[in-house]
Design goal:
Strand order of the largest sheet: 14-13-12-11-7-10-9-8-15
Distance between the termini: 41 Å
Strand content: 15-25%
Number of domains: 2
CATH topology of the largest domain: Dihydrodipicolinate Reductase, domain 2
Bound molecules: nicotinamide-adenine-dinucleotide
Length: about 425
């Protein structure tokens, strides 16, 4: 089969995908990389050369789009994906989007419509759904092992304070300093919905203020958030995510009518399953068969490609590309497991609405389903977000606790740490 020609937009996270997955992919040939930060382009070109590839480097997205490529991986700033994804779709390219799909509702409507008009493949690169035990939970759920979903919980804690100067380069307006506490919610919400096939219909949000260690690094948003959701089948879900004082964890529990499954909080490879024994064998309910094991990989072959950027997440980065390229080539399994635009929005819209809940005293908010075209009309001009470049007169504060005044010295110190490479 002819290899797909692909290009990557944004060479920070994009570079992780290039180095670990894309330089040697059986289904795709890396043709170009675009970033306006020249040192990253130089690094990408050097890495490609080591692998015997001649990489085209661009500082302008439209220049990259005009070259001979089939697909684009969008990995620029997390709050600025939709406009570029739409341009790529309109130019006839397939799109794999990093997190998040959109930063407001108007963009969500435009992106749905662009995907539908284009007929191209759009997939969402929520790699935490493909973390092996999570992926195993999806397959067991589909088999009916724990019955209908009743309740679920997810925790995604990532204390990025040590990495903040590298991540933000000391830029006051960097997206990480301003996106709301609920924005980056799909690492926690995504797997719960992916496993069970459910969507949230209502959400309530709560956040904590920006913590001193984060303010000291220039962040303005609440440092963590909790979201409580009612699901479309009457079940419930809780998500806790953000910068809290713990080593990294992403942890998922799913309860069903016949049992439950949960990932281990410390050994990320491990899965715990409790299945209620059949009633006929018992005099009462509430007795369980318990399993505690490390699931085997979804795909055992091509081990050399399954080098995740995050060792604790196993093969997840490889699977995002496998299902994207597979779907482009018409593979039904890839289409089944890849995350399309509607499921991407199911994962991200609860975050946008949880923030509206937070700003309104934690009242419940309805989460719309953009598959319904009539609902889109109400949201078409809803630009509310924390980004002054797109919010217009609907600019939201970065935290419900009010805007925090951060001095220029803070950003100068972070920029200096970044320049000197003195950051994790
Ligand atoms: N799935 C994961 O595990 C994971 C991990 C890290 C980051 N991400 C996602 O990857 C994306 C990028 O994150 P990051 O940490 O690399 O962020 P970042 O802000 O460090 O990187 C964005 C890159 O895009 C470049 N860029 C931005 N606008 C540009 C433009 N108009 N033209 C050319 N270049 C431009 C920047 O120079 C920068 O190198 C985000 O969407 C983030 O959510 C995902």
């Amino acid at each position: 089969m002819k290899k797909l020609k692909i290009a990557v937009f944004g060479a920070t996270r994009g570079m992780q995908l290039v180095e670990k997955i894309l330089l040697n992919h059986p289904e795709a040939e890396l043709v170009g990389v675009c970033d306006h930060y020249q040192p990253l382009l130089d690094k990408a070109a050097a890495k490609a050369k080591e692998s015997g590839l001649e990489l085209k480097c661009f500082s302008n997205f439209d220049d990259m789009l005009s070259c001979d490529i089939d697909a684009v991986i969008i990995a620029n700033c997390a709050n600025a994906h939709a406009p570029y994804a739409i341009r790529a779709l309109e130019a006839g390219k397939h799109v794999l989007s990093e997190l998040l799909p959109t930063q407001n509702l108007a963009e969500a409507v435009q992106l749905c419509e662009a995907v539908e008009r284009s007929g191209k493949v759009y997939q969402y690169a929520e790699n935490y759904c493909f973390f092996e035990p999570v992926f195993e939970m999806r397959r067991r759920f589909e088999r009916g092992d724990i019955g209908e979903a009743t309740a679920m919980e997810a925790t995604f804690i990532n204390d990025l304070s040590a990495q903040w100067p590298r991540l933000t380069r000391g830029e006051r307006n960097n997206w990480r300093n301003h996106v709301p506490s609920t924005f980056y919610c799909t690492h926690s919400i995504g797997p719960m919905l992916y496993i069970t096939g459910r969507r949230a219909v209502n959400v309530v949000g709560i956040e904590i203020p920006v913590q001193d260690c984060m303010k000291w690094m220039g962040a303005c948003s609440g440092s963590a958030a909790c979201q409580l959701m009612q699901l479309d089948n009457g079940g419930m879900a809780k998500s806790l995510h953000g910068n809290l004082k713990r080593t990294f964890t992403s942890h998922y529990s799913i309860y069903g009518t016949k049992g439950s499954m949960e990932t281990d909080k410390y050994d990320y490879r491990r899965l715990h399953v409790s299945i209620e024994k059949p009633f006929e064998e018992n005099i009462r309910f509430g007795r369980y068969n318990v399993e505690d094991y490390i699931p085997s990989a979804f795909e055992e072959s091509k081990k050399e490609l399954r080098k995740s950027s995050y060792p604790e997440l196993g093969n997840s980065d490889y699977y995002i590309t496998k299902f994207f390229f597979g779907a482009i080539n018409g593979d039904e399994t890839a289409k089944h497991y890849g995350i399309d635009i509607y499921h991407a929005l199911d994962m991200s819209l609860p975050g946008l609405f949880a923030y509206r809940s937070i700003l309104n005293g934690s009242i419940p908010m309805v989460v719309p389903d953009l598959r319904d075209k009539a609902i889109r009309e109400e949201l078409r001009y809803d630009t509310a977000c924390t980004d002054p470049l797109v919010a217009g007169n609907l600019l939201q504060p970065s935290s419900k606790f009010g805007s925090c005044m951060i001095s220029d010295e803070v950003y100068a110190r972070c920029a200096d740490l970044f320049r000197r490479g003195e950051t994790d």
